[in-house]
Design a protein that fits this description.
By secondary structure, the chain is mostly helical. It contains 9 helices and no strands. The protein is 69% helix and 0% strand.
Length: 194
């Protein structure tokens, strides 16, 4: 996805842009909490892990240079999650459950390897979560009919012809609706997914 000047990642370069940082928190807190709970890190410990991750992101973001390659930000974030989880695990001598019952330290090492199945699963979950959140955010930007054509075609998997028949329009109108929504999604997501 092309990165535009109005993307969240671009806006985060300005440490004083409170709205951008709030959006980042809204976007990532549920995902980070879900991952903490998957490790059997709950309650205040989960809150601490989310806070630790976001603190590192805020502190280290000026050092992050997006190489314009898909997945750069999510990989950077995944490494921060692994490091913060490892620090919390060691400092509190916690009993943490890794997926599949594996050793937690081994699991975190695998999570840091972008070619490992665990890292790829994290990447997929990240992209699905961010895309869902961003779709919810941009939905009000579209007329209901445009959104419905997009949703039936892209999200529900119907063909353009099926959607057109269902809604009494042309397949071309369905393709145009898809194009408009995806263009807006790319603009909103710039650099976060892919």
């Amino acid at each position: 996805m092309p990165v535009t000047s109005v993307t969240l990642l671009e806006r985060l370069k300005d440490a004083r842009d409170g709205d951008a940082w709030n959006r980042l928190m809204e976007l990532y807190t549920p995902l980070l909490r879900r991952w903490a709970e998957r490790f059997n890190i709950r309650g205040a410990d989960a809150d601490d892990l989310v806070q630790d991750v976001m603190t590192v992101v805020i502190r280290r973001f000026p050092e992050f240079v997006h190489p314009r390659q898909p997945g750069a930000f999510r990989g950077w974030l995944r490494a921060i999650v692994a490091n913060c989880s490892r620090t919390l695990w060691r400092s509190r001598q916690m009993h943490v459950t890794a997926p599949g019952g594996t050793d937690f330290g081994n699991y975190l090492a695998r999570l840091e390897d972008p070619n490992d199945d665990y890292a790829r699963a994290w990447d997929r979950e990240h992209d699905q979560h961010v895309t869902r959140m961003l779709l919810d955010r941009i939905r009000p930007d579209f007329e209901e009919r445009t959104w419905h054509m997009f949703a039936r075609f892209v999200l529900d998997g119907l063909t353009a012809e099926e959607v057109a028949s269902e809604l009494g329009t042309s397949p071309n109108a369905v393709y145009i609706a898809k194009s408009r929504v995806l263009a807006r999604l790319r603009e909103e997501a710039g650099g976060l997914v892919g």
